[in-house]
Amino acid sequence: MGTVTSMTRKGQVTIPKEVRDVLGLKPFDTIEIRIEDGTATLRKARLALDEIAGILPPLGIPIEEMPAIAMDDWGADFAEKER
């Protein structure tokens, strides 16, 4: 698939709808741009847990414990109580 778009004076680029659809991009998603041999590749970024920790509201749980909690039934109970 090839799509052409333009860049504003501020360096902003609109990602065409067909590209957003193929990549499954939604508003506020994080995008990774890689440059290799003068070619830019765009993809939906996959963030590590420690990278998204600052986005989440404070839960009072050490980040190292979060994966285990997420895999535990307690995680579902905790999320339900926080609503």
If you had to describe this structure to a student in words, what would you say it looks like?
With 83 residues, the chain is of the alpha+beta class. A two-stranded antiparallel ribbon has the order 1-2. The protein has two domains: 1-46, Pemi-like Protein 1, Chain: D (Ribbon), CATH 2.10.260.10; 52-82, no CATH class. Helix content is 33%, strand content 14%. The chain has helices at residues 17-23, 49-52, 66-71, 73-82; strands at 31-36, 39-44. The chain is built from four helices and two strands, in the order αββααα.
Describe the structure using short key phrases:
83 residues; alpha+beta; Pemi-like Protein 1, Chain: D; two-stranded antiparallel sheet; 4 helices
Quick recap of the structure?
This protein is of the alpha+beta class and 83 residues long. The chain has helices at residues 17-23, 49-52, 66-71, 73-82; strands at 31-36, 39-44.
